Amino acid sequence: MLCAYIHVPFCKKICDYCDFRVIPSLSRLYAEYTDLVCKQIVCFEEIHPGFFTSVKTLYLGGGTPSELPPPYLKKIFECLASVGLKVSSLQEISMEFNPESTNEESVAAALELGVNRISLGLQTFDAELLQRIGRSHSVETGLRALDLLTSTPHLQVNADLMFDLPGQTVQGFLNDVDRLSDYPLEHISFYGLNVSPRSRLGHKVSAGELSINEDLYEPMYLGGVEILERKVFGRYEVSNFARQGFESVHNQNYWNRGEYVGIGPGAHSFLGNQRFYAPEIYPRWRDYVLAGCPQESLSVDCLNREDKLMEYIWLSLRQSKGMSFKGLSEFGIEDAEDKAASCISKWVCKEFVIKKNGVLQLKGRGWIFMDDIVTDLANAYSNLE
Ligand code: SF4
Protein backbone atom coordinates (compact mmCIF):
# COMPACT_ATOMS: atom_id res chain seq x y z
CA MET A 1 0.00 0.00 0.00
CA LEU A 2 1.24 3.52 -0.74
CA CYS A 3 0.80 6.36 1.76
CA ALA A 4 1.72 10.03 1.93
CA TYR A 5 2.87 12.08 4.91
CA ILE A 6 3.08 15.88 5.06
CA HIS A 7 5.27 17.30 7.81
CA VAL A 8 4.23 20.66 9.27
CA PRO A 9 7.17 21.80 11.44
CA PHE A 10 5.45 24.65 13.31
CA CYS A 11 4.70 24.61 17.03
CA LYS A 12 3.19 27.38 19.12
CA LYS A 13 5.75 26.73 21.85
CA ILE A 14 8.56 24.18 21.94
CA CYS A 15 7.79 21.65 24.69
CA ASP A 16 10.58 21.02 27.20
CA TYR A 17 10.91 17.33 26.23
CA CYS A 18 10.79 17.89 22.47
CA ASP A 19 13.54 16.33 20.42
CA PHE A 20 12.01 16.90 16.98
CA ARG A 21 13.11 19.43 14.40
CA VAL A 22 10.36 21.98 14.93
CA ILE A 23 10.25 25.74 14.64
CA PRO A 24 8.17 28.37 16.41
CA SER A 25 4.92 29.02 14.59
CA LEU A 26 5.65 32.27 12.74
CA SER A 27 2.89 33.50 10.47
CA ARG A 28 5.44 35.09 8.12
CA LEU A 29 6.67 31.57 7.22
CA TYR A 30 3.29 29.99 6.38
CA ALA A 31 3.11 31.12 2.74
CA GLU A 32 6.73 30.24 2.03
CA TYR A 33 6.42 26.83 3.70
CA THR A 34 3.25 26.05 1.74
CA ASP A 35 4.87 26.96 -1.58
CA LEU A 36 7.90 24.83 -0.74
CA VAL A 37 5.74 21.83 0.20
CA CYS A 38 3.87 22.17 -3.10
CA LYS A 39 7.12 22.40 -5.01
CA GLN A 40 8.47 19.30 -3.26
CA ILE A 41 5.26 17.40 -4.06
CA VAL A 42 5.56 18.31 -7.75
CA CYS A 43 9.27 17.37 -7.81
CA PHE A 44 8.49 14.00 -6.22
CA GLU A 45 5.76 13.31 -8.75
CA GLU A 46 8.17 14.13 -11.60
CA ILE A 47 10.69 11.61 -10.28
CA HIS A 48 8.04 8.97 -9.38
CA PRO A 49 5.23 9.53 -11.89
CA GLY A 50 1.88 8.07 -10.86
CA PHE A 51 2.82 7.68 -7.18
CA PHE A 52 0.13 9.99 -5.79
CA THR A 53 -2.61 8.39 -7.91
CA SER A 54 -2.09 5.15 -5.97
CA VAL A 55 -1.88 6.67 -2.48
CA LYS A 56 -4.43 5.22 -0.03
CA THR A 57 -3.90 7.29 3.12
CA LEU A 58 -2.71 10.81 3.88
CA TYR A 59 -1.31 11.93 7.24
CA LEU A 60 -0.58 15.51 8.29
CA GLY A 61 1.80 15.40 11.24
CA GLY A 62 4.34 17.57 12.89
CA GLY A 63 5.13 19.74 14.66
CA THR A 64 1.55 20.87 14.77
CA PRO A 65 -0.41 20.83 11.48
CA SER A 66 -3.35 22.62 13.11
CA GLU A 67 -1.09 25.67 13.52
CA LEU A 68 -1.17 26.13 9.74
CA PRO A 69 -4.23 28.23 8.86
CA PRO A 70 -6.88 26.55 6.62
CA PRO A 71 -6.14 28.55 3.41
CA TYR A 72 -2.58 27.18 3.38
CA LEU A 73 -3.76 23.63 4.08
CA LYS A 74 -6.24 24.03 1.25
CA LYS A 75 -3.45 25.01 -1.11
CA ILE A 76 -1.49 21.87 -0.19
CA PHE A 77 -4.57 19.71 -0.82
CA GLU A 78 -5.09 21.42 -4.19
CA CYS A 79 -1.50 20.68 -5.10
CA LEU A 80 -1.90 17.03 -4.09
CA ALA A 81 -5.02 16.82 -6.26
CA SER A 82 -3.11 18.36 -9.18
CA VAL A 83 -0.59 15.48 -9.08
CA GLY A 84 -3.33 12.84 -9.05
CA LEU A 85 -4.17 12.26 -5.38
CA LYS A 86 -7.90 11.54 -5.17
CA VAL A 87 -8.96 12.79 -1.74
CA SER A 88 -12.46 11.32 -2.06
CA SER A 89 -11.15 7.81 -2.59
CA LEU A 90 -8.60 7.80 0.24
CA GLN A 91 -9.19 5.31 3.03
CA GLU A 92 -8.03 7.67 5.75
CA ILE A 93 -6.94 11.30 6.08
CA SER A 94 -5.45 12.03 9.50
CA MET A 95 -4.36 15.31 10.97
CA GLU A 96 -2.68 16.10 14.29
CA PHE A 97 -4.17 18.90 16.37
CA ASN A 98 -2.96 20.56 19.53
CA PRO A 99 -5.58 21.65 22.08
CA GLU A 100 -4.96 25.39 21.60
CA SER A 101 -5.75 25.38 17.91
CA THR A 102 -8.77 23.08 18.20
CA ASN A 103 -11.86 25.21 17.69
CA GLU A 104 -15.05 25.03 15.66
CA GLU A 105 -13.51 26.85 12.68
CA SER A 106 -10.30 24.80 12.48
CA VAL A 107 -12.17 21.49 12.84
CA ALA A 108 -14.80 22.47 10.25
CA ALA A 109 -12.04 23.53 7.84
CA ALA A 110 -10.25 20.20 8.29
CA LEU A 111 -13.47 18.27 7.67
CA GLU A 112 -14.13 20.28 4.56
CA LEU A 113 -10.72 19.27 3.20
CA GLY A 114 -11.68 15.63 3.75
CA VAL A 115 -9.91 14.94 7.06
CA ASN A 116 -11.71 12.04 8.76
CA ARG A 117 -9.37 11.30 11.66
CA ILE A 118 -7.97 13.82 14.14
CA SER A 119 -5.25 13.05 16.65
CA LEU A 120 -5.15 15.29 19.72
CA GLY A 121 -1.97 15.75 21.77
CA LEU A 122 -3.34 15.85 25.33
CA GLN A 123 -0.47 14.14 27.20
CA THR A 124 -2.01 14.39 30.70
CA PHE A 125 -4.94 15.86 32.63
CA ASP A 126 -2.60 16.95 35.43
CA ALA A 127 -2.03 20.73 35.40
CA GLU A 128 1.22 20.55 37.33
CA LEU A 129 2.67 17.91 35.01
CA LEU A 130 1.65 19.84 31.89
CA GLN A 131 3.60 22.76 33.25
CA ARG A 132 6.57 20.62 34.29
CA ILE A 133 7.03 19.21 30.78
CA GLY A 134 6.56 22.64 29.22
CA ARG A 135 3.29 22.11 27.36
CA SER A 136 1.55 25.31 26.39
CA HIS A 137 -2.06 24.17 26.92
CA SER A 138 -4.03 24.02 30.16
CA VAL A 139 -6.17 21.11 31.36
CA GLU A 140 -9.30 23.17 30.59
CA THR A 141 -8.15 23.81 27.00
CA GLY A 142 -7.48 20.09 26.57
CA LEU A 143 -10.92 19.16 27.87
CA ARG A 144 -12.63 21.73 25.65
CA ALA A 145 -10.81 20.32 22.60
CA LEU A 146 -11.72 16.76 23.56
CA ASP A 147 -15.39 17.69 24.02
CA LEU A 148 -15.50 19.44 20.67
CA LEU A 149 -13.80 16.64 18.73
CA THR A 150 -15.75 13.78 20.29
CA SER A 151 -19.05 15.54 19.61
CA THR A 152 -18.21 16.18 15.94
CA PRO A 153 -20.07 13.78 13.64
CA HIS A 154 -18.24 11.73 10.98
CA LEU A 155 -14.89 12.09 12.67
CA GLN A 156 -12.64 9.45 14.20
CA VAL A 157 -10.75 10.80 17.20
CA ASN A 158 -7.46 9.70 18.72
CA ALA A 159 -5.93 11.23 21.83
CA ASP A 160 -2.34 10.82 23.00
CA LEU A 161 -1.20 10.47 26.60
CA MET A 162 2.33 10.31 28.01
CA PHE A 163 3.58 8.42 31.04
CA ASP A 164 6.62 8.15 33.27
CA LEU A 165 6.72 11.94 33.44
CA PRO A 166 8.86 13.56 36.16
CA GLY A 167 6.96 13.34 39.43
CA GLN A 168 4.02 11.41 37.94
CA THR A 169 2.58 8.66 40.14
CA VAL A 170 1.28 5.32 38.87
CA GLN A 171 -2.19 6.15 40.14
CA GLY A 172 -2.03 9.57 38.52
CA PHE A 173 -1.34 8.04 35.09
CA LEU A 174 -3.99 5.35 35.53
CA ASN A 175 -6.51 8.05 36.43
CA ASP A 176 -5.61 9.81 33.15
CA VAL A 177 -6.19 6.61 31.16
CA ASP A 178 -9.44 5.89 32.97
CA ARG A 179 -10.74 9.41 32.44
CA LEU A 180 -9.77 9.57 28.78
CA SER A 181 -11.24 6.16 27.95
CA ASP A 182 -14.65 7.30 29.26
CA TYR A 183 -14.87 9.71 26.30
CA PRO A 184 -16.56 8.47 23.12
CA LEU A 185 -13.34 8.34 21.11
CA GLU A 186 -12.16 5.60 18.77
CA HIS A 187 -8.46 5.46 19.51
CA ILE A 188 -5.96 6.11 22.31
CA SER A 189 -2.16 6.10 22.18
CA PHE A 190 0.18 6.32 25.13
CA TYR A 191 3.94 6.69 25.15
CA GLY A 192 6.55 6.56 27.89
CA LEU A 193 8.60 9.75 28.10
CA ASN A 194 11.96 9.35 26.44
CA VAL A 195 14.23 12.06 27.79
CA SER A 196 16.61 13.31 25.16
CA PRO A 197 19.78 14.80 26.68
CA ARG A 198 19.50 17.59 24.04
CA SER A 199 16.08 18.73 25.25
CA ARG A 200 15.41 21.36 27.92
CA LEU A 201 13.95 18.62 30.12
CA GLY A 202 17.08 16.52 29.52
CA HIS A 203 19.22 19.42 30.81
CA LYS A 204 17.05 19.71 33.92
CA VAL A 205 17.37 15.97 34.57
CA SER A 206 21.17 16.11 34.11
CA ALA A 207 21.33 19.06 36.51
CA GLY A 208 19.35 17.07 39.10
CA GLU A 209 16.43 19.54 39.04
CA LEU A 210 14.00 16.83 37.87
CA SER A 211 14.11 13.06 37.91
CA ILE A 212 12.37 10.20 36.16
CA ASN A 213 11.58 7.05 38.10
CA GLU A 214 12.14 4.34 35.49
CA ASP A 215 10.81 1.68 37.89
CA LEU A 216 7.34 3.12 37.36
CA TYR A 217 7.40 2.45 33.61
CA GLU A 218 6.22 -1.15 33.93
CA PRO A 219 3.31 -0.68 36.36
CA MET A 220 2.14 2.37 34.42
CA TYR A 221 2.27 0.61 31.04
CA LEU A 222 0.71 -2.67 32.17
CA GLY A 223 -1.91 -0.88 34.29
CA GLY A 224 -2.85 1.38 31.38
CA VAL A 225 -3.22 -1.61 29.06
CA GLU A 226 -5.47 -3.37 31.57
CA ILE A 227 -7.81 -0.39 31.82
CA LEU A 228 -8.04 0.08 28.07
CA GLU A 229 -8.66 -3.60 27.37
CA ARG A 230 -11.39 -3.64 29.99
CA LYS A 231 -12.99 -0.70 28.18
CA VAL A 232 -12.79 -2.52 24.84
CA PHE A 233 -9.86 -0.67 23.33
CA GLY A 234 -7.78 -3.44 21.75
CA ARG A 235 -4.00 -3.08 21.75
CA TYR A 236 -2.88 -3.55 18.15
CA GLU A 237 0.57 -2.04 18.57
CA VAL A 238 2.72 -1.51 21.65
CA SER A 239 1.49 2.08 22.15
CA ASN A 240 -1.76 2.07 20.18
CA PHE A 241 -5.26 1.00 21.19
CA ALA A 242 -8.46 1.16 19.18
CA ARG A 243 -12.08 0.18 19.26
CA GLN A 244 -12.51 -2.62 16.77
CA GLY A 245 -12.28 -1.41 13.18
CA PHE A 246 -10.71 1.96 14.08
CA GLU A 247 -7.03 1.02 13.96
CA SER A 248 -4.90 3.58 12.09
CA VAL A 249 -4.54 2.38 8.50
CA HIS A 250 -1.69 4.80 7.83
CA ASN A 251 0.42 3.76 10.81
CA GLN A 252 -0.16 0.07 10.16
CA ASN A 253 1.36 0.61 6.72
CA TYR A 254 4.59 1.80 8.41
CA TRP A 255 4.69 -1.26 10.66
CA ASN A 256 3.93 -3.59 7.77
CA ARG A 257 6.87 -2.10 5.85
CA GLY A 258 4.61 -0.57 3.23
CA GLU A 259 5.90 2.21 1.01
CA TYR A 260 5.30 5.91 1.65
CA VAL A 261 6.49 9.36 0.76
CA GLY A 262 7.25 12.05 3.33
CA ILE A 263 7.06 15.70 2.26
CA GLY A 264 8.50 18.53 4.37
CA PRO A 265 11.73 19.13 6.30
CA GLY A 266 13.25 15.84 7.46
CA ALA A 267 10.17 13.79 6.53
CA HIS A 268 11.13 10.19 5.83
CA SER A 269 10.18 8.18 2.74
CA PHE A 270 10.43 4.47 2.02
CA LEU A 271 10.43 3.29 -1.56
CA GLY A 272 11.87 0.16 -3.08
CA ASN A 273 14.87 -0.79 -1.03
CA GLN A 274 15.61 2.66 0.28
CA ARG A 275 14.70 4.84 3.20
CA PHE A 276 15.51 8.48 2.52
CA TYR A 277 14.79 11.98 3.76
CA ALA A 278 15.31 15.60 2.77
CA PRO A 279 17.33 18.00 4.98
CA GLU A 280 15.82 18.39 8.45
CA ILE A 281 16.85 21.96 9.23
CA TYR A 282 14.33 24.37 7.75
CA PRO A 283 16.71 26.73 5.85
CA ARG A 284 18.58 23.72 4.39
CA TRP A 285 15.30 22.11 3.36
CA ARG A 286 14.26 25.40 1.75
CA ASP A 287 17.53 25.49 -0.27
CA TYR A 288 17.05 21.85 -1.26
CA VAL A 289 13.52 22.48 -2.56
CA LEU A 290 14.49 25.75 -4.30
CA ALA A 291 17.31 23.88 -6.04
CA GLY A 292 14.70 21.53 -7.54
CA CYS A 293 14.96 18.71 -4.93
CA PRO A 294 18.28 17.24 -6.17
CA GLN A 295 18.49 13.54 -5.37
CA GLU A 296 22.09 13.92 -4.19
CA SER A 297 20.98 16.17 -1.31
CA LEU A 298 18.86 13.41 0.21
CA SER A 299 20.11 11.31 3.11
CA VAL A 300 19.70 7.74 1.92
CA ASP A 301 19.82 4.38 3.72
CA CYS A 302 20.04 1.45 1.32
CA LEU A 303 18.78 -1.51 3.28
CA ASN A 304 20.81 -4.70 3.20
CA ARG A 305 19.50 -8.11 4.20
CA GLU A 306 20.39 -7.63 7.89
CA ASP A 307 18.63 -4.24 8.03
CA LYS A 308 15.48 -5.63 6.44
CA LEU A 309 15.50 -8.69 8.67
CA MET A 310 15.82 -6.52 11.78
CA GLU A 311 12.99 -4.28 10.57
CA TYR A 312 10.78 -7.28 9.88
CA ILE A 313 11.29 -8.73 13.38
CA TRP A 314 10.97 -5.43 15.20
CA LEU A 315 8.01 -4.06 13.25
CA SER A 316 6.11 -7.37 13.39
CA LEU A 317 6.59 -8.05 17.08
CA ARG A 318 5.52 -4.57 18.13
CA GLN A 319 2.11 -5.35 16.63
CA SER A 320 -0.32 -7.63 18.48
CA LYS A 321 -0.68 -9.81 15.41
CA GLY A 322 2.96 -10.80 15.92
CA MET A 323 5.68 -12.18 13.69
CA SER A 324 4.98 -14.91 11.17
CA PHE A 325 7.87 -17.38 10.95
CA LYS A 326 6.91 -18.05 7.34
CA GLY A 327 7.55 -14.39 6.48
CA LEU A 328 11.23 -14.93 7.26
CA SER A 329 11.60 -16.96 4.08
CA GLU A 330 11.76 -13.53 2.34
CA PHE A 331 15.23 -13.25 3.92
CA GLY A 332 16.27 -16.76 2.92
CA ILE A 333 15.43 -18.27 6.30
CA GLU A 334 13.47 -21.53 6.06
CA ASP A 335 12.32 -23.49 9.15
CA ALA A 336 12.62 -20.23 11.08
CA GLU A 337 10.74 -21.58 14.10
CA ASP A 338 13.23 -24.42 14.59
CA LYS A 339 16.25 -22.24 13.94
CA ALA A 340 15.46 -19.89 16.83
CA ALA A 341 13.96 -22.58 19.08
CA SER A 342 16.39 -22.21 21.97
CA CYS A 343 16.16 -18.43 22.02
CA ILE A 344 12.37 -18.54 21.84
CA SER A 345 11.93 -21.23 24.50
CA LYS A 346 13.63 -18.96 27.06
CA TRP A 347 10.95 -16.32 26.51
CA VAL A 348 8.12 -18.90 26.28
CA CYS A 349 9.12 -20.29 29.71
CA LYS A 350 8.83 -16.83 31.21
CA GLU A 351 5.43 -16.46 29.47
CA PHE A 352 6.69 -13.33 27.70
CA VAL A 353 5.80 -14.70 24.25
CA ILE A 354 3.35 -17.16 22.81
CA LYS A 355 3.76 -19.35 19.69
CA LYS A 356 0.56 -20.15 17.85
CA ASN A 357 -0.05 -21.34 14.29
CA GLY A 358 3.39 -20.32 13.05
CA VAL A 359 3.21 -16.87 14.64
CA LEU A 360 5.15 -15.43 17.59
CA GLN A 361 3.34 -12.84 19.71
CA LEU A 362 4.33 -10.84 22.76
CA LYS A 363 2.43 -11.54 25.92
CA GLY A 364 2.10 -9.95 29.39
CA ARG A 365 5.46 -8.55 30.58
CA GLY A 366 6.93 -9.51 27.20
CA TRP A 367 5.75 -6.09 25.95
CA ILE A 368 8.10 -4.46 28.46
CA PHE A 369 11.00 -6.66 27.29
CA MET A 370 10.22 -6.22 23.60
CA ASP A 371 13.66 -4.77 22.74
CA ASP A 372 15.51 -7.69 24.39
CA ILE A 373 13.33 -10.26 22.62
CA VAL A 374 13.84 -8.55 19.25
CA THR A 375 17.62 -8.41 19.77
CA ASP A 376 17.73 -12.10 20.71
CA LEU A 377 15.77 -13.09 17.61
CA ALA A 378 17.84 -10.87 15.34
CA ASN A 379 21.04 -12.44 16.71
CA ALA A 380 19.62 -15.93 16.22
CA TYR A 381 18.79 -15.25 12.58
CA SER A 382 21.44 -12.78 11.51
CA ASN A 383 24.10 -15.29 10.47
CA LEU A 384 21.76 -17.65 8.65
CA GLU A 385 21.28 -17.58 4.87
S1 SF4 B 1 3.88 19.75 20.23
FE1 SF4 B 1 5.12 17.94 19.75
S2 SF4 B 1 6.42 18.56 18.06
FE2 SF4 B 1 5.61 20.44 18.98
S3 SF4 B 1 7.15 21.09 20.47
FE3 SF4 B 1 5.67 19.83 21.58
S4 SF4 B 1 6.53 17.76 21.47
FE4 SF4 B 1 7.59 18.96 19.91
Provide a descriptive summary of the structure in words:
This protein has 385 residues and is of the alpha/beta class. It has 2 domains: 2-254, Aldolase class I (TIM Barrel, Alpha-Beta Barrel); 305-382, Orthogonal Bundle (Arc Repressor Mutant, subunit A), CATH 1.10.10. 39% of the residues lie in helices and 21% in strands. It has helices at 27-47, 70-82, 104-113, 127-132, 139-150, 170-181, 200-206, 217-230, 249-255, 282-290, 305-317, 336-339, 341-349, 370-382, and strands at 2-8, 10-11, 23-24, 55-62, 92-97, 117-123, 156-163, 187-192, 234-237, 240-242, 259-263, 268-271, 274-277, 299-302, 323-324, 353-356, 359-362. The strands form 4 sheets. A 9-stranded mixed β-sheet has the order 9-10-8-7-6-5-4-1-11, sandwiched between helices. A hairpin with a 2-residue loop joins β12 and β13 (274-277). α2 runs parallel beside α3. Iron/sulfur cluster binds next to loops.
